[in-house]
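Model: You mentioned two targets. I'll fold them one after the other.
Researcher: Yes, keep them separate.
Model: Target one:
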Amino acid sequence: MTRRTLLTLSTAVPAIAAADRYDVAIYGATPAGLVAALAAVREGARVVLLEASRHIGGVVTGGLGATDKGNTAVIGGLALEFFERVGKMYGGPACWWFEPGVAMKVFREWLQEAGVRPVLGEALAQVRKQANRIEAIRTASGREVAAKVFVDASYEGDLIAQAGVSYIVGREGQRDFNESLAGRLEFSTWDQFWTIVNPYGDDGKLLPLIHPGDSGKPGEGDRKVQTYNFRLCLSNDRGNQVPFTEPPGYHPARFTLLARYLANPGRDLTLNHVIMLVKIPNNKLDVNNNGPISTDYLGASWDYPEGDGKRRGEIWEDHRRYTLGLLYFLARDPRVPRHLQEEMNTWGFAKDEFIDSGHFPPQLYVREARRMKGAYIMRQDDVHLTVGKPDSVGMGSYPIDTHHFQRIASPVGAVINEGFIVDRRTRPYQLPYRCLIPKPGECDNLLVPVCCSASHVAYSSIRLEPQYMILGHASGVAAAMCARTGTPVDRLEVPGLQERLREQRQILSLKSP
């Protein structure tokens, strides 16, 4: 557990020009950030939306078209409006499976209607804080923004870190919050090897893609984070395809472990056992991880949450090369069974998607980074048992779902993936306003809908995009209310916020009218 304070002295940031003063400043043009901006504007707030990259919509416009929706009865408000707008694009009702380009069109039109123009390429550099309030932020380009209330809607939680707000990276141990699913796992059956695969090369050294260090003890916490990947968009329409080609720096030896597994998998395999193929409209796929060696790049994400821009860029590029190498391996390597290779070569990158980034997703799927230690920390029991909250601002329902953390060699000379949990005991649960705000005394004007306050176990249910949007909606309305009245976020009258959210179709309880 850690708390990092990266504050600049108040004299380090010059006076802010009047044109750069806002009611609400939102950092991160993720779906949560976009929805927060739209919600705040609808409340009459003057809003600025800043994004470090050149991409808006996060992973939703970056390839995740097969929505992890859970129980759709709990999805309301602006989150539901997004999916309804997507459905309208296809001429039907709310749509949960869609093309990345359609999601991008929906967000752009929605923002244009509201008069919100995201300011792109503005990575956070400094925070000016006076007592317990953020006064202003400065981006790497030198842009300075002052606001009454700030929202950190980034996947990484950079604003909470630089504002001196407590946070954690990694897994708690079982004893920290009395969570049975916490810490390093003894064993998981999900995306696991179904046969013994020798983890060592002819030189006696571990093969690539296997973690050589300490894997930890079962039940103990660590600072490792679950694996990231890219959500790919492929097409089997020959007129809308870009073929898989050999990427720069490709080395077939990197995939020796996969070649060994495919030679003796312990079961009959189709391509869907190697990469998850989820159909979306117009002869396309949303490709996700499936199986023991797939698009998840185990162990490569650990440095990302607290890495600087250079380090994150290196990790992004390493993931890209791994993914392109995997696709090329499956399409061309003679060690791949012929029936899998033939099936693989019916697909290619969708030519009409991600045109500005070579048909490859611009957004890395950051499943988990920092998590705030806020006014209330959501825990395993909060999604299993004690699901009611008096300060509910939305609901979640998705199972606890965390991908693997590491791939290790077992003492008996086999290979094991560690960390994957799918726990379906989750009940529809209420998300409290308190998980959006820092603990008292740390920051009076900050809301956090993505890196919200939760243990790793609880966050593994919360971390899905519909829930991010639900929390973004609540954060946007709350930020506008606090800005209008000058109220610290921890003193906001929650019943008034709840009333406003209900008026906007947010589902606060399954018993709500």
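Model: Target two:
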Amino acid sequence: MQKILDIISEKMQAAFVAAGYDAAYGKVTVSNRPDLCQYQCNGALSAAKAYKCAPIQIANAVAEQLSGQDFSMCQAVMPGFINLNLSDSFLADYLEQMRTAPDFGVQKDGSGKTAIIDYGGANVAKPLHIGHLRPAIIGEALKRLHSFMGYNTIGDIHLGDWGLQMGLIIAELHRRQPELCYFEEGFSGPYPEEAPFTLSELEEIYPTASARKKDDPDFAHEAHIATFQLQQGHPGYRAIWNHIMRISLADLHRIYDMLDVHYEAWLGESDADPYIPAMIEDLKAKGHAVMSEGALVFPVAEEGDKKEIPPCILIKSDGAAIYATTDLATMVQRMQDHNPHKMLYVTDKRQNLHFEQVFRAAKKGGIVSQETVLEHVGHGTMNGADGKPFKTRDGGVLRLEQLLKDMTDFVRSKVVENKIVSDDQVEATTAKIALAALKYGDLSNQPTKDYNFDLERFAAFEGNTGPYILYTIVRIKSILSRYGAWEELPIKLPTNDHAKELMLCITRLGPALESALRTSSPNLICAYIYELAGAVNKFYHETRILTEEDPALQQGYISLIGLAKRILEQCIHILGFSAPDKM
């Protein structure tokens, strides 16, 4: 289904041609003066220079060609603007098409294409903390947006499961329990099915080992050796690694489920490791991988670079592969398995240089095609309400699970205090409102910007918040429930300015989603639904809906708010939360 701006622009272009001017001047935009008109065209101002005549003369000639063509107003005003208002019938017909079309008629730009969204970046054996919130929330929203826009989408958590932290855990476990069979030379198995540690013990082992490494060179060396031996296939260390993975993944699944974040692929650095040797040999054969100060590097600097772009290190001087190596090998795996049209990486924006190096190496080395879209969606940090880095009272990093609990407890107190729902609905309703408050509070910010986390503001039922959006949806649900069957009712002509404003806002769904997709900015969806919710509430306050005595008028009102509800629900699903039935 064509966007309404495209339809109007085509009519405007035809009018320019009919008046004797080039069609290129017929671009229409949403008016920057909604008090004067709905849409405008400024092409006559530019055409005046080419045709050497007054812009108002061109605007008048074009406006004459448009009179009566789906516009209630088509007016040329000084110095040469063309102001437009859609006719009520055109607007109603367009919304009726949106109501009956699959997915509201939004154009599916991703049809036939695959997109892999790499987000989350959790490290096994380490608890998720608040630094994991933004990549999970932004990445999930971008994945759902791509899916809605027609892409075959694959969300990949890209676990950190193969680096030094594994060697540190093994070395620390060896110090504590050297008698375990995993460390016994020549042990023929089988290894125990039960792990020699619990999740809480595992989460204590790693920080202890990490701290010991800084003060004990011998221990650090032991951990490096253990990491190397694990990667070379040491059976006992592989058995420990399997225990770590099983226990850690179960906990990661639990917490991501609480966030309503779900991955199609639970792959990690270990899955990319087998692809590294052949990739390195291929890059050597092509002359891209060269030795520099004992390390194997891939020079990626280009003529014209405005800043220094260091070589991409593939193998360090001690023979170890690093993140860049793993990221490139992961691309090899993804191209073989899925041949994606695009790959998005959602991480901290401070990793911009790393991804610039990796993306250049991938294109130069032929790991991906020149047409493959590689994008780093770098995000800012979440700070405390005081604008300083978010810390616990004792100065530590707050665990993600605790943050979720704090938000849920805060919202629950509001739900109970205001008696929003019956006692048996408190927990389910609280969970939905808390998640909406948390996710919308994050996603309404531009991804690259830092923001301050504020429980009170995010959980407010008024203003630009998730609970406000939910409240609007619940209000519409209540009206529709009291009315009865509404799903098949057609859109009618607008009967007042508030209805027309709501209808015009609904038409902007497609452009909002396309802009969010093009710029990888879920905040544009938040901005759209905040505007839509505002238009719904203005319409509600200024229009008698359930008390309207004219059945035809009432049907039109019900159909209009029903369409708004469906769009709001679709958008919050893309953002990663849902609305309760009552609030």
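Researcher: Noted. Anything on target two?
Model: The first helix runs from residue 4 to 18.
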